[in-house]
Structure formats: structure tokens, C-alpha cells
Amino acid sequence: MLHSKTFNKKTRGGRIQKLVREVYLRDDIYCGALFCKSCEDKSKARLTATASTILILDTNVVLNQIDLLENPAVEDVVLLSVVLQEVKNKNSAVYGRIRNLIDSPARRFVVFSNEFHRDTYVQIMAGESPNDRNDRAIRVAARWYQSHLGEAVKVLLITNDRENKRKATEEGVSAETIESYVKSLGQPALLDLLVQPASEDVIMEEVEDMRPSKRKVVYPEHKPMSEITSGLTKGIYHQGKLRVNRYNPFEAYVGSESIGDEIVIYGRGNMNRAFDGDVVAVELLPQDQWHEEKSLSIVDEEDEEEDVHLVPGSSDDAPRTSIPVSSSTFDTNPVSSRPSGLVVGIIKRNWHSYCGSLEPMPMPAGSGGLVYALFVSKDRRIPKIRIQTRQLDNLLDKRIIVAVDSWDRQSRHPSGHYIRSIGQIGDRDTETELVLIENDIDARPFSAQVLACLPPLPWSVSSKDLNESNRVDLRHLCVFSVDPPGCKDIDDALHCTMLPTGNFEVGVHIADVTNFVHPGTPLDDEATQRGTSVYLVERRIDMLPKPLTEDICSLRADVERLAFSVIWEMTPEAEIISTKYTKSVIKSRAALSYVEAQARMDDSRLVDPVTKDLRNMNALAKIMRQRRIHRGALTLASAEVKFQIDTETHDPLDIGMYQIREANQMVEEFMLAANVSVAEKILKEFPECSLLRRHPTPTKEMLGPLLRTAAAVGLNLDVTSSKALADSLDRAVGDDPYFNKLIRIMATRCMTQAVYFCSGELSPPEFLHYGLAAPLYTHFTSPIRRYSDVIVHRLLAASIGIYKLPTIFRDRPQLTSIADNLNYRHRNAQMASRGSVELHTLIYFRNRPTDTEARIVKMRSNGFIVFVPKFGIEGPVYLTMRGDKGGGEWFVDEQQQKIRKMDGSVSYSILQAVKIHLEVLEPKPNRPKLQLTLL
Amino acid sequence: MEFVNPEGLRLDGRRPMEMRQLRAQIGAVAKADGSAVFEMGNTKVIAAVYGPREVQNRSQQINDQALVRCEYSMANFSTGDRRRKPKGDRRSTEISLVIRQAMEECILTNLMPRSQIDIYVQVLQADGGTRSACINAATLALADAGIPMRDLVTSCSAGFLNSTPLLDLNYVEDSAGGPDVTVGILPKLDKVTLLQMDAKLPIDTFENVMQLAVEGCKAIANYIREVLLENTKQLEYRRGL
């Protein structure tokens, strides 16, 4: 049956256009009930025969109550295509979650394409709004279901729209609100998952009863969307993403393109209910109010302070992505003239669920009843969230996940609802899981479909692999691997033989993961999603299943393994004469650790082949490294720490800086060279669809903090190019041995992170990797733990004509989205590692108050931030007591980066070494934190 | 954008391998020697054939075969926004050429030396796949004009969106920017007379997409044959045979 849909649309030019679309109405859309006798196709049917009630959901229910729907208590749900379409348009995150529910074989959710069904298609009536039409379509579909399935089952329309419910009842469809339905299920715990309707008067009254002082309107009203749009076009308002200062949640920034600068927003009042990540419209304050707010920000309502945390690895992790020192609210004399503003409207919310715990509160008398509690997120940028719960005693000492629902003008805190609890606060497993959830890391075991893609175990190189024409037999070569101690997923190995000509043949052999992970398989899809392996202090979350990572692909000693090799012929001066790429079979002679390799090289008595090769390679690597540094590659330092973990209790026993040896640098050098060679090769063959890695040149603003610090200690840094910066960093040798490393750490922090990208998206000059001073770079050498390398392996295999390029590479948007996902996962994995280290640092210091040396890295008005090199942590040291406004006594000299007592008796300057005391305190029960005090 | 939803339905409710509704009418222009209106969904095309007749421009005359000319145009009202389009723009010239070449292949031109056949096609309503609709309409009109042909020529397009081969793209799907393969075949001889694509596709996918388009062409051929048969029956009836 054919119908056509006619509607009017406004074109971009502003004209009204009439569009006509065909709609083909079908009779082959099935109801999805297993017990239905008239529908033949049962392949997608899920609704069970035992079900006495079938739920049909209205759009508002799906949009608001997705957390409830994810609970297995809700089953036998029909989702109409009209509902799905509306959900998709309104909130793509919820749409993704509902799609997951539909796809999950464990759940009984079916889709009914009512919009294309002959009997349920509804044409818009004259004078009817699209919303009313959709509501009618839902009712028509519900009625169809009832008549189709007969009286044996009850079809229940769940809607929170009063009008819709009334009409449904009139039309003879049984309808209920979600609240009454959940109540009828008789599981009180489920009620916590319900989102409370935002504007329901009852709840507001209760709040006011509880906190009579807060009756007044707390926040200014948001402007209506139309006013915002016109304000934006007129230039009165500015649009941008709100980013809250990680150090101080009462200060936020909006990067606005329209004024080319960042707008600072001080205080929750000016933020006007915006969350971190929301797209907001901002109105500038008059210029005379621009710096008057300073004092306000620190003495703001609630009393929050800085935490001790790990040293940021790059500017992305640092509290502020760019610009001035004045990022700290502690400054007394602000660098004036930074525009500040207030939020007038929120264009797009960035609400999701947050991890944290409830604020300790006394148990109300009648426990078990409905209680309001305040939720404190672990992420300090998120304000406290008010939730309603019936199981307070249960949740008080738990880590829980909470979602935000709304934020009224009358309430100081946003209101949300409880989703689930993770476990006891302070418990290591709970806290680790929290780290994983916060960083969106999937730590679930691999599904059966994924595991089915693995080759049968025990696996060994078969004659078929050996006879493959594309695979070269390199088993005769003396190949060895050098990795961190205890490494099980060895993805790279090396060899180096002297040729009769006096040149060297150097090979880098990388585990041939793509031989086992084929495009389009569930295994590949899973790896694409995970993107990278995640290394936590006490565990590893693999990207690929264990048999692949630790056995089949791992280039272990004395077993034959498949590899993808890059083989160069090099002169003794480390000039590359020729490069060869091939799939191969290798047999590693030795799997060394960095320490072992170093010891072998250093021990002059050893003359076995492996050691000789090691020495040759080291000599080559040194030349290559020298040349690279000469080209302007930066040697940046990071403060990585290493834990020694108790094998039984998994508690950290010792903590120390990660030591870098010559052997590390040697391996790194050859990996870099292999990556560069591969990048050149794939880009030559596939200029449009190669996956490369670039590191943008830092802007002058980003290097600002570094330059100011350097200037304060009388150091002149030249940042005109990476070469100049590298040279001036080399020259920066103070009288104390740690000075140079400290400057390098600070330089590292000013850089952004390197990112993956698809070569078709950018022009060649932008491909530059600033840190390595390489015009082209990619990741090829760790396919076991990074998906980017898997992609690059496929590209390389295609470029040497072994395999066809998978079709995905033809689809640039998809390739770009994969690259974006890789960047996201990569970053999250790093954040999770840091989170895990922070957690273990806390556990370590719990019973070990320590005195140690620290360096001052940042000045504040009432103290400074210190960096503890030995443990790689950073945190505030207060000179004045908290609560004391601290304005008068201390004086910060912005120019010289010094803090001085007013009477001039004591002063501290930047980079100065100070003695501090580290101790874990519990100011509130169950909330341990690391405190630094000056000795 | 999602062109095939997870339930396997396209934006207009078709499944990936389904064609739009076909409609055809023979003899729409009484003055022409042969004419037809052909519809594929909301795409509507009219074709008129004149000839074989005397060659108008003597210099173009070919001594051992007929001269086939084709003119494609779009009515101003054929798209949503009424815009005056210049006649003989690049696109129409190209489509005219494509249609002419496809039709020339099946007309037995050597039977009609020193004569001329004119094919005029005009798009009345455009909703994707105009090229295919024009060829189908032209076939019907040629048949109506009684011009000797080897076989019918039928055409259909297929595309590849959301990693799914789709038959007979409509305007929305066509403007998605994906590959659009237009195929014209001689169904009885099982030969291809037209194959166009202006995007890149891996060869194995291309084969699937093209195969789908060929299936579409065959379905159209069956339909056209039915229409012609029906038309002939009516002619018989009118003549009282």
C-alpha cells in the first residue's frame, strides 16, 4: 500500500519548501510475540508466552526512565518506531542505550515499526501538531496490539503525559504512569531508579519543608531558546562549551569563538546551573566587574579544596588547557582584563551519570522511608546532587552511580536519581571499578562470540603458515625481545646481523595480530570498541582475549611465531639504505628485560651472539637518537612511578620513580624508526585513508606558564621551533641536578597530546609530530595492545599487496570516527592508569606518614603547589590555615613567582626545594585524603 | 545518517532489495509516433518518439543506418523549488548522450538507412533515478512507435549505503553522496548496454551492487513486457480482432 507524506520545510535560505515523500505501508511487520499465531516470522520475536502484560512505552518514558528500563525487572517491552525516532532526535545517548537493550539477547525488548505497518500508520490531521500526531500513533499501535494479541494478554501503555493517558483510557487502551506501574511491581528498590518529574509541585514543597532557608529563587532564569538564538546572532551572547576548573569548581571557562578569548565565569550563581561540558550561551559582564569577583570565588558557599593528585602528563590532563597563570583563584592581583560573564542559557546539556558517594548525614528517625540525600561526585567539577532514596542506611558507605535529572531555579543543587551501587567506599576493588567506570572502560570478560573467533588452542605455526607465499621464513635469524620485566604481551622483537659489506641488517618484528583478527568479525568489532589495553597498577584490561595476547601473538622466547617485519639495511653510521616490509615466521632466541639487556651490554666478558647484536644495535641506536635530537626532537620528562605490589594482598609495598636505561632508549629508537618507515609507506600507497599520528605544535599561549616560570628563575627559553626549544632545554642546567628534569617536566605539561587522524582529513603540513620532530608518524609496533596498530598493519599488508584493503577504509567518515574513538579510548586509558596510581598512592601512604623533599611548581595566594619527585605526585601546601582568608599576611610576586611574608621574614620562590610531610587524613569518615604540610 | 534502520527498513518503508512502485502508460502524446509515461515511485517521466523519418540536416545523414537523436530535459516544475534551468546544461547533455547510446544499441538501425529517429524525454517529477526512468520510458515509446529493436532496454539503479546494497535509490538516498550504480541491460540477450558509477567501490561490493541493479532491470523488463502485452491486447480489441 502506498501513501505519501507531505510536509513543509524551511530551507537554509529561509524559503518554505514543500516536500513529498513516499511511504510504503507493509503487511510483513510482525508483532514480536513468540506465542502469536498469526505472525509467521519469529526470528526477532522476544515477548514470551508467559507474559501477562506487554508494555508499550511513550517517548517521555524512554527518554527519562532509561535507567529503570535497563533494570532486568522491566521486560516484555514493545518499542514503537515512532518512539525510537523521537528518542533519537532528542537524545542520542539514550537512543544508543535503548538500542543496546533491544540487541541484547538477554532482554525481551522488541521493535515494532508502526510507521510502516498497514494498520497502524497514522496520517497527520489538519490542525494537529506533530507531537499530538505521534501520541495518537502510539495509541493506535497500542490498540492494534491489544486486538492483535487478543484478550489473553494485557497491553499496557506506559505514559507520563497526562493528556495522552486520558485519551488512551477514553479510547479503551489501558494506560498507566511509570510510577504506578513500578509500584505495582512490588519492588521498592526499583523506585529509587525512577526519575522524579521536574515540575511536580509535591516534591518542591517537601524540599522547602526540609530547608526553609532556601525557599527563595537561587538562580536567575534561563532565557528562552529564541532569545538566545537572536542574542547570538546579534553578538550580545556568546556560545561555547563550559569547562569547569578542575582545581576550583566555582570557576569555569567558556571558550568563545565570537570574541576569540576565553570568558571566565566565577561562582555557581554566574554559572547558573550549567555543568561541565554543557554548551552554553554567555553574556559578558560590564568591564568594571571583571576582576571584582576574585575574592568571592575562594570564600564561596561550600568549602572545597584541592586534592593531592598525580602530576599531569600533558596539558590535556592539567587543570587548564591554555593560557595564563591567573587560572588559579588564589591569585590576589588578577591579570585584570580577562572578560568574565554569566550563563544566560544552556544550549545543550552534557548530563550523564556520575560516580561518587553520599554526603554523610544522620539517619532520619523512621528509616526505610523516603529520604533526601546529597550525593558528592568523585569528579570535583560536578556540584552536589540531591537524590531521593528509600535505602539510605544501605547506601551511606557505598560508592554509587547517580544520574542528573533536572535543576530548578529554586534549588541550590540539581536533583537526580540513584542508578546502582558499586561497593564499599575505600575498598580497593570498588575504587578500581570506579576508576574504570569514570573513564568509560569496558572491563567485562569477552563474549562467547568474540572467543569463538580465536584459533583452536594449543596453537602453533603450521606448515600452511610456512608455505604461504607471502610469508618469509626468518627462523634462522637471531631474534630477541627486550621488554619491561614480567611482560607477557610481547609485541616486538629485534634482530641485527652484520652483512659481509660491513653494513647491518636490522629487523623489527611485530606480532602478526591481523593474521588472527580479521575485519568484520566480532573479535575485531570488540577490539575496535576497546581501542587499547588498559594498564592499572594491579591488573591489565586487555583489548584482545588472553590466549591471543599472552600466547598466540606474544613473541615469546624459543617458540615459532608469526610476525610482520620491517627490515632495514643500515650503514654503520645508521643511514638507512633500503627498507623491506614482509610477513614472516620468527623464533625468538631470548626474551630479555630491560635490566637484563642492560646488564649484558655492560658486562664486557659476555661475547655470545645476542649480546654482540645488542651492542651493535645500541651503537646504531645512539647515532639515530643523536640525529633525531639534532633534528629537534624533544626529550621530555615525565614523572612516572612504579609500585611494588604484594603478591598476596595486592597492597603496594614500595613506590618509586620509573628508571629509564639505555636499553629502553635503544628499543624505543628502533620502534620509532619502524613507525616512521611504515608511516611513509602507507601514506605513499593510501594518501587518502592512512591512519597517522600527529602532535600539534604548541601555541605561544600554551607555553606561557613554562616561559614565566623559566623567566622567574632567570632562564631564557627559545620556543620558536622544537629544535630551538630542545636546545634551550639542553642548556638549562642549574646548579642542582634535578633542575633540568623539572624544567622538562614542566615543558611536557604544556604540550597537548598526540592524536590519531585519517590522512584524508588534513593537509600534509599538519601531519607533523612536534615532539618527535617527524613529518610523519604512526603506530605500528604494538598491535596486541593498541587497535590503531592493527589498522596500520592492515594498511601495510594492503600496500605491499598481500591482502585487499578492507572496505571500511573506503568510508572516510567511519574511518574518522574510528580514529576519534581511538583518541578517546587512549586518553581514557591514560586517565584510568593515573587514577589507579593515585588510588594506590593513597593506600600506600595510609600507614606510612612520610617526610620528603618537594619542589614548588606553582604559586597561590595562601600557599603553593608542590611536586614530589620521588612519588610523582603534586598537591597544595597551605601557608595559612584554611578558613583564614589569608589575604594579608602573604604576598605573591607575580613577576618573580615568589611568595613572601608581609614583613619580609620568609619567602618561597618557584622551583625551590622544600621539606614536606605526607600523611593520609580522614577529615570525614570514609573520605581519606592525602595531606601535605610544610616542615 | 541512517538509511537502513536496524529493523531492515529504509526511510520510506522499503526493504533494501525492494523497488519503488512502477507505473506505465502507453500513448500519452497522440501526435508522436510513439510515446509513454513511466513512473518509478515519485519519479515521473514522459517520452515521445518521432520517426523513422527524413533526416532534417542532410549533413548528418548516414547512408547505411538510421540517425538516432535524443533530447533530455527537466520540466521547471519537476523539483520542489520551481527554478528555471538553462536548456542544454552539462548534466542534460550528458544524460541525453547516455540515453542515446543505450537506445542506439538495441534499435536495428541498419534496417532504416538515411533516416532519423528522435527521442524526446522530459522529467515531469524528479525523485531520484531519473536516468533509469527515462531509459525505461524511451523503450516503451520506441516499442509504441513500432521501431524494430533487438530487445527491450531496461534500466535501474542501485546504491551502497550503511554497508548495505540498496535497490532503486530515491532522491534522499541518492543525495547521501554514496555510490550510485546505474545499469541498463538487454534482458533477453542478457547483455549490459549501460553501466555508470561516479564513486569508488571495492570490486567485490561493486559486483553485489551491480548484480542487484541487474535484478532490478529484469523485474522492470517483466513489467514492461506485461504493459506492452496489455497494450497490444487492447489494440486487438479495438480493431475488433
Automatic annotation (TrEMBL), chain A:
Name one matching Pfam family: Rrp44_S1
Classification via Gene3D superfamilies = 2.40.50.690, 2.40.50.700, 5'-nuclease, Nucleic acid-binding proteins
Q: Name one GO biological process term.
A: rRNA catabolic process
Compartments where found: Nucleus
User: Which keywords does UniProt give here?
Assistant: Exonuclease, Exosome, Hydrolase, Magnesium, Nuclease, Nucleus, RNA-binding, rRNA processing
Gene Ontology CC annotations of this record: cytoplasmic exosome (RNase complex); nuclear exosome (RNase complex)
The reply on keyword Hydrolase is yes
Cofactor(s) recorded in Swiss-Prot or TrEMBL: Mg(2+)
Indicate the principal place this protein occupies in or around the cell: nucleus
> Which residue range or ranges hold the RNB domain?
471-802
* Presence of the UniProt keyword tRNA-binding in the record: no
The PIN domain sits at 53-166
Q: Domain of life here?
A: Eukaryota
Q: List the GO molecular function terms.
A: 3'-5'-RNA exonuclease activity; endonuclease activity; RNA binding
Q: Which family does it belong to?
A: Belongs to the RNR ribonuclease family.
In Swiss-Prot or TrEMBL terms, this protein is called Uncharacterized protein
- Organism of provenance: Populus trichocarpa (Western balsam poplar)
Automatic annotation (TrEMBL), chain B:
The UniProt keywords, alphabetically, are: Cytoplasm, Exosome
Indicate whether Cytoplasm appears among the record's keywords.
Answer: yes
Identify the CDD domains for this entry: RNase_PH_RRP41
Instruction: Please give an example of a GO cellular component term from this record.
Output: nucleolus
Query: Subcellular localization, per the record?
Result: Cytoplasm; Nucleus, Nucleolus
In terms of InterPro entries, this protein maps to: ExoRNase_PH_dom1 (IPR001247), ExoRNase_PH_dom2 (IPR015847), ExoRNase_PH_dom2_sf (IPR036345), PNPase/RNase_PH_dom_sf (IPR027408), Ribosomal_Su5_D2-typ_SF (IPR020568), RNase_PH (IPR050080)
**Family annotation (SUPFAM superfamilies):** Ribonuclease PH domain 2-like (SSF55666), Ribosomal protein S5 domain 2-like (SSF54211)
**Top-rank taxon, per record:** Eukaryota
Q: Which residues form the Exoribonuclease phosphorolytic domain?
A: 18-148, 151-216
**Which GO terms fall under biological process for this protein?**
nuclear mRNA surveillance; poly(A)-dependent snoRNA 3'-end processing; rRNA catabolic process; U4 snRNA 3'-end processing
The Swiss-Prot or TrEMBL record describes its family as follows:
Belongs to the RNase PH family.
Q: What is this protein called?
A: Uncharacterized protein
